[in-house]
Amino acid sequence: MARGPKRHLKRLAAPKHWMLDKLGGVF
């Protein structure tokens, strides 16, 4: 899951803040 975060972003079509939250460890 940590590998290829861009793929998940495209799948969920989530904004940039979503990626930051994942990297931050919020989710």
Automatic annotation (TrEMBL):
InterPro entries from the entry? Ribosomal_eS4_N, Ribosomal_eS4_N_CS, S4_RNA-bd_sf
List, for all copies, the residue spans of the domain called Small ribosomal subunit protein eS4 N-terminal.
Answer: 3-27
Gene3D superfamilies (alphabetical)? RNA-binding S4 domain (3.10.290.10)
One annotated GO molecular function is:
RNA binding
- Which species is this record about? Plectus sambesii
- Residues annotated as coiled-coil are none
What protein name applies here?
Ribosomal protein S4e N-terminal domain-containing protein
- Which PROSITE patterns does the record cross-reference, listed alphabetically? RIBOSOMAL_S4E
Q: Pfam family of this protein, just one?
A: RS4NT
